[in-house]
């Protein structure tokens, strides 16, 4: 039954009975659990589960968080996010709190239920069309993030999200990073919209396709934007490189697996001496550049999924199917086979 998949006592990370905030596995698991809490807040609303019937509270209370605000969509009144405050009891003073957040703002992804699916799906389309920033749900989310940062400072706020929610958290993080505020961010299965090159099994073919795409993209950048040079202090992509969100992807999830190739290809291009080409290509989308040529416009919309820097964690644990590979539940398991790399734009 569906409620069994929402019960913390059955599926939650009960092994985290002592939190070590310096442990990256603990931080990842807790951030994923708080995102799960936002999913179940909406499911509680849909199923009219209140008080002792509600299944959402254990997903944050187990880790000594309290819910201080639900984020509600103005279009259909669904809960799409939550703001949590970390409030550990004095009896847990021995736990490491050096890297703990004061507040976490978490966003859920699409829920496949009638009460919310229509609105969620319309937002998925906005992500595909690179128009998430124009939606009222994102405006509500962005205002909540800005207000929290203004009240407590960027070092005290974490962002977290899964799938569509990861796209929202990423866009909010990128937007606020451009103002000089860099938030810790945990982005689970964030969508990367491009041809599924990463799913090709032959390494040389993948590299050849990516190399050709980089050359074409760089050429279109020069054709549409000219050869004008900007200093690093004026380059928006370089300014954004100071923000290093944590990305969590599964190679068998075609919605996010392209992040693996995106960052690894950039590193390889630097190694073989084509770094200048890739520095142009990595901050532009080939599709958007083609559209700017068709429209005869020098401006292309900044693609959401393009990032200068990231701490990329890849789950190499075998997945049974796409649902498992894309699910939030994988990220709090204690037995994961993970590959982690830091990528910094330079």
TrEMBL record:
Protein name: Fungal lipase-type domain-containing protein
GO molecular function: hydrolase activity
UniProt-listed InterPro entries: AB_hydrolase_fold, Fungal_lipase-type
Superkingdom of origin: Eukaryota
Domain Fungal lipase-type residues, every copy: 142-182
GO BP annotations, alphabetical order: lipid metabolic process
Keywords, ordered alphabetically: Hydrolase
